[in-house]
Design brief:
The protein contains 24 helices and eleven strands. It is an alpha+beta fold and 750 residues long.
């Protein structure tokens, strides 16, 4: 592989005009496609194999024309202090609002609160339910404007009016912190390279890659029913890995220049060596993201595949466009150790000579920070290992209290009308009113469907935690009925989850007696089923992703223990990151700093999503850092010396890459969407734990303790595995081989 990538890098350097033209053309094509594509339609949220989805599908069949997936809105009215909603003036205002809403072209129905028992017992609060023919994402802006105008007119008449439901659903905004994250990445790159030109290359290529990826997602959003969160996730991951992959290749290019190679040769070798690591690191991320398909939730599968496509584009750009741009930059990209005018004079000679693992005698140049840290770790490996493991273990403690759920209007910021409507309904009708359960009774198999409907209704009324049960509402054929159940607990509570299971158990008894099947659906039941499905899929997903990546890393490192250590270190970092997420978003620690206005259960897909994404990103740093150690080892250095050499060449760059990735992810904490905010924080803290605790401390400590055993591989497996040559051994010239015969012998042994 190294030889192929070496040739590719040199070709891209020589044919830079052609390469740049191809990528600019692809960006233009994707941009035109995004601009001309129809607006994204309904991003269907289906969960095959669950009872809630089965009930939803049954509703569409037995109650045609009711737009089961149509948007809904609840216009909530509150009377001024000392008045009631039943007063003549207030009632007239509400009825006028209902009439105005009913005139909308996309409105299916509007329920008058005075005809549907939608006034609170104390008379202070009332609500009107609005049903639309199309989903929230498909509603025309004029329809949303009419809804807001009607609410405003009622406000002008003296009522407090808020609007809940998904009719006002909007594309989430990421806020200014996203730009701050990119700015931090730019500063880190300038400090790392000491040159605006060299720092600008990773940023430029990452933005081009993300532009192509996100534009393509936008162009296909309508046809593939991709939600707005899909493009945000692709942008988040694409920016992070795009900058990092380019950073590693530019850094290796500068190192090759420092060894006296011509620029085209240096570009080829950079792509052949660092580019090999980029390919395998990208593969681990792609495996982790595409592996989300095993959960069998279409929305999650689409998010993973779209993000994986953006990562693949980032890899291709790093391998081709970076060497092309290096050709354009020419002498403006300095060799490693030679600073540009921006940061002053050269640092050349400031680093410790290669092979010096610890200490320095008088007159020797001072070792860099990575060398000094690695030297300390290999002298005290057991202490560093214990400190790192215990620290991550403490951070992971909150994960034991993890509660899962999906966000609803109750998790929205208090500044939104959806959240205020949610609170008003809770005050007037009880906490469970915001999460009613819809029970669907299929009476086709019953001798008397009406008797079956009544039996189900009576069974539910006898359950604990039920506030209200509406009479069964049969369809025209009389073989199916719906029953609305209002719990006495909020939608995301454990009590509501227990009630859903109790209704399903009671339905099983009714089926045994009457033959009628009882199904529970609605947004609350759907959320519960999603959480359970994600929990059930976590272990199979973990086995699949970690197993495939483990095999891939065996090929890369030609070792059993190094990939095993990498996987165990990942588990530590992801558990610690989940602990931090629980502490902030569930317990409320530092919630004000993070802009978390409402604490509650952690998003259901967060654990499995973090397992996938964090594993892929963690393997990035493992590949980039440990390949330099293996490269030094196979070239004849002793195991501990190879660890120090790997840090000497890789620690600065890996540190910069981790800081950049953290900055990019942290930039999404400012999003208005709670799911995006949580993902941004979770990934940022996970990168911190994995890069600075696991890869920078635990990994060198374990390698120092293992010594030569770290690179052991059974002979039969060594013969069976393909030689991918990540170390670039095939690129060494005859002169280099003659000058390092020990390295050739060591390579032959390994």
């Amino acid at each position: 592989m190294a030889t192929f990538l070496y040739k590719l890098g040199r070709l891209a350097f020589r044919r830079r005009h052609f390469v740049a033209l191809i990528w600019v053309a692809l960006l233009t094509l994707a941009g035109v496609g995004a601009a001309s594509a129809p607006p994204a339609g309904n991003s269907s949220f289906s969960i095959p194999g669950t009872e809630a989805q089965k009930a939803f599908d049954l509703l569409e069949q037995r109650f045609p024309g009711q737009s089961a997936d149509g948007a809904t809105a609840r216009v909530v009215f509150k009377a001024p202090s000392g008045e009631k909603m039943t007063d003549a003036g207030n009632r007239a205002t509400v009825e006028k609002t209902v009439d105005d809403l009913a005139d909308g072209s996309e409105v299916a129905s509007v329920a008058d609160p005075y005809q549907g028992d939608a006034v609170s017992k104390d008379g202070a609060i009332a609500y009107a339910s609005v049903k639309y023919d199309v989903s929230g994402m498909e509603l025309e802006e004029s329809t949303k404007d009419a809804l807001e105008d009607a609410a405003q007119q009622a406000r002008d008449a003296g009522l407090t009016v808020e609007v809940g439901g998904d009719a006002l659903q909007a594309v989430p905004e990421t806020g200014a912190t996203e730009i701050i994250g990119i700015a931090v990445a730019a500063v880190v790159l300038v400090i790392t390279f000491g040159s605006l030109v060299a720092a600008g290359l990773p940023l430029l290529t990452a933005l081009i890659g993300v532009g192509i990826g996100v534009s393509t997602i936008t162009a296909l959003a309508s046809a593939l029913e991709l939600g707005s969160t899909t493009s945000i996730l692709a942008m988040m991951i694409g920016l992070a890995v795009g900058i990092d992959y380019a950073l590693f290749i530019v850094s290796r290019y500068r190192a090759e220049l420092a060894e006296g190679r011509e620029r085209e040769e240096a570009a080829g070798r950079a792509v052949g060596t660092a580019g090999s690591a980029v390919v395998f690191a990208g593969l681990t991320v792609v495996i982790a993201l595409v592996g989300l398909a095993v959960v069998n939730i279409p929305m999650l599968t689409k998010m993973g595949v779209a993000a994986a496509g953006t990562v693949a584009v980032a890899v291709l750009i790093a391998l081709t466009m970076i060497p092309a741009l290096l050709g354009y930059a020419g002498r403006r990209v300095k060799p490693a150790g030679a600073k540009g005018r921006l940061l002053g004079r050269s640092r050349k000679g400031a680093e410790q000579p290669e092979g010096q693992s610890a200490g320095r005698s008088e007159g020797q140049p001072k070792a860099n920070l990575g060398t000094r840290w690695a030297s300390f770790v290999v002298r005290r490996p057991l202490a560093v290992l214990l400190l790192g493991v215990v620290g991550l273990g403490v951070a992971a403690i909150p994960a034991a209290s993890l509660e899962l759920g999906l966000p609803d209007d109750g998790s929205q910021p208090t500044s939104t009308t959806q959240r205020r409507a949610y609170d008003l309904l809770s005050d007037g009708f009880g906490a469970g009113f915001n999460g009613p359960l819809m029970v669907v009774v299929d009476g086709k198999g019953a001798a008397s469907p009406n008797d079956a409907f009544t039996s189900v209704s009576d069974e539910i009324k006898g359950l604990d935690g039920v506030v209200a049960v509406t009479p069964p509402a049969p369809n025209k054929a009389g073989d199916t009925a719906t029953i609305t159940v209002v719990p006495d607990s909020k939608p995301s509570s454990v009590q509501t989850e227990d009630l859903v299971h109790a209704i399903r158990d009671a339905g099983g008894d009714v089926k045994a007696d009457t033959g009628a099947e009882t199904l529970v659906t609605g947004s609350t039941a759907m959320n519960i089923d999603v959480s359970e499905k994600l929990n059930d899929a976590l272990v199979p997903y973990l086995v699949l992703v970690v197993g495939l990546a483990f095999l891939l890393l065996i090929v890369v490192f030609r070792s059993i223990l190094v990939p095993l250590k990498a996987a165990l270190g990942f588990l530590l970092s992801v558990l610690a990151a989940l602990g931090a997420v629980v502490a902030v978003f569930q317990w409320g620690w530092l919630s004000g700093l993070m802009g978390v206005e409402e604490t509650g259960p952690v998003m259901s897909m967060m654990p499995i999503f973090m397992v996938g994404v964090v594993f892929g990103l963690a393997m990035d740093y493992e590949v980039f850092l440990v390949t330099r150690m293996r490269e030094a080892y196979v070239h004849g250095e002793k195991p501990n010396q190879a660890v120090v050499t790997g840090f000497k060449h890789g620690a600065r760059v890996v540190t910069a890459a981790a800081v950049i990735m953290m900055a990019v992810f942290a930039g999404f904490i400012g999003s208005s969407e709670s799911m995006v905010k949580m993902i941004g924080f979770g990934l940022a803290i996970a990168v911190f734990f994995d890069a600075f605790v696991v890869r920078m401390a635990i990994v060198p400590a374990v390698l120092a303790l293992l010594g030569k055993r770290a690179w052991w591989l059974p002979r039969w497996l060594d013969r069976a595995l393909p030689n991918v040559d990540v170390e670039g051994e095939g690129l060494r010239t005859a002169k280099e081989r003659r000058s390092d015969p020990d390295g050739d012998r060591e390579l032959a042994r390994t």
